[in-house]
């Protein structure tokens, strides 16, 4: 294969954007040249990112061609209506009793006026620009990465104009099957439009990529030619870290790294920890709950009014490099997913970086989740449902006792399959 076989990657998220969404194609772009592909990135010039992380800039190859064009998105107007609308950019919502009338109105507007999302105004100008660019540069393969799923509409338009174009639609998260979809307060007409557009993408894309086994299966049922390539960890990030042995820490530290919103709040874990701190003085004396990232204010408020108040260490959002350090400086790592069965196919990207640390993982989500399959395969921890209670305390106490006795060992079994380089090799074979 010629090394100058070019592939255009259409992505909204790109450094200096922070969060897991940016890392998937950043890492693919980093390793694709080793497998005979030269990536070209198409991304907005003036995006409205919910998080920034300058440390990811170091992973952008110096010779990578990046094309940027202006985007208009209505988030500034939404934020004037209600400051909490900043959450929408990351797919977060106030739910239940936490919703006031402004939240309700904003969610209704977001779901019904901007289909599939607020980046839809970039679709038409991008289609016009890229049609010309692709023809002039003789590029025959494109990738669209969503969410935002507006990126897939750019691919759909280009495929209809240029039928011989090879189009890979990459779904980092599902579209109508994502947990917050049902919270969008959609009218029947809006729901039909979302589902029609999703179906058009599945039918017209040459290949649809999913980040989980279940999502790939669901996409195939809906008419897509779907393959699963999970997210992963970059050995270049992990190998440069000196891992802190769990037993050498002054405290038994349970850490959550990333964004935690109300829809993935493990209330039964907080209940178990509350009980342990209240009834086990040894545990209470040695335990710390560390948050690294953006934690919903309502969740923090609840924890601050509980027995855990004096055990919380909230570091806020930090760079990706620092986040990897904080993972290494933990005893057990926490991961959460949405509780409903339709979310069993979501594999949060951070699990792979967790695996690379060798630390034990405690996971929350639906039964038979894809995360459970990964934890079983790697023997890296335990998965719980949102109704489990006593078993959580038993698991934590077991790990705590191992930590106290200096036996909480690191574990990295069967994880090389999830390295970014190996995953890029998989991608190149599909291409």
Automatic annotation (TrEMBL):
Domain of life: Bacteria
GO MF annotations in UniProt: transferase activity
Keywords tagged on the record: Transferase
Full protein name: Glycosyl transferase family 1
Species this chain originates from: Chryseobacterium luquanense
């Amino acid at each position: 294969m010629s090394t100058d076989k070019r592939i255009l990657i259409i992505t909204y998220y790109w450094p200096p954007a922070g969060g897991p969404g940016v890392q998937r194609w950043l890492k693919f772009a980093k390793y694709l040249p080793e497998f005979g592909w030269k990536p070209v990135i198409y991304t907005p010039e003036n995006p409205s990112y919910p998080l920034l992380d300058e440390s990811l800039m170091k992973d952008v190859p110096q010779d990578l061609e990046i094309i940027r064009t202006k985007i208009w998105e209505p988030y500034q107007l939404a934020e004037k209506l209600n400051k909490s609308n900043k959450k929408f950019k990351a797919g977060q919502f106030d739910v239940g009793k936490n919703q006031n009338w402004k939240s309700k109105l904003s969610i209704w507007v977001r779901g019904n006026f901007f289909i599939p999302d607020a980046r839809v105004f970039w679709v038409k100008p991008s289609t016009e620009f890229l049609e010309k660019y692709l023809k002039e540069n003789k590029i025959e393969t494109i990738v669209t990465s969503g969410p935002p799923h507006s990126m897939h509409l750019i691919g759909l338009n280009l495929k209809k104009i240029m039928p011989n174009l090879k189009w890979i639609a990459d779904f980092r998260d599902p579209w109508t099957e994502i947990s917050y979809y049902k919270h969008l307060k959609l009218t029947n007409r809006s729901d039909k439009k979302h589902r029609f557009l999703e179906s058009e993408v599945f039918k017209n894309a040459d290949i649809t990529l999913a980040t989980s086994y279940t999502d790939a299966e669901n996409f195939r049922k809906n008419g897509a030619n779907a393959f699963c390539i999970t997210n992963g960890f970059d050995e270049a990030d992990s190998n440069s870290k000196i891992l802190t042995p769990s037993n050498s820490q002054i405290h038994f530290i349970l850490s959550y790294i990333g964004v935690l919103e109300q829809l993935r709040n493990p209330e039964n874990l907080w209940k178990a920890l509350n009980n342990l701190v209240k009834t086990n003085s040894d545990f209470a004396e040695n335990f710390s709950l560390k948050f690294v990232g953006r934690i919903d204010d309502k969740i923090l408020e609840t924890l601050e009014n509980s027995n855990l108040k004096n055990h919380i260490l909230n570091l806020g959002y930090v760079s990706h490099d620092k986040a990897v350090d904080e993972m290494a400086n933990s005893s057990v790592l926490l991961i959460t997913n949405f509780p409903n069965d339709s979310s069993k196919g979501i594999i949060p990207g951070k699990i792979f970086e967790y695996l690379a640390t060798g630390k034990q993982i405690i996971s929350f989500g639906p039964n038979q989740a894809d995360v459970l399959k990964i934890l079983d395969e790697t023997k890296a921890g335990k998965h719980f449902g949102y109704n489990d209670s006593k078993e959580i305390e038993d698991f934590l106490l077991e790990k705590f006792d191992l930590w106290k006795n200096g036996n909480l060992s690191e574990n990295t079994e069967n994880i090389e399959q999830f390295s970014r380089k190996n995953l890029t090799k998989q991608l190149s074979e599909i291409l």
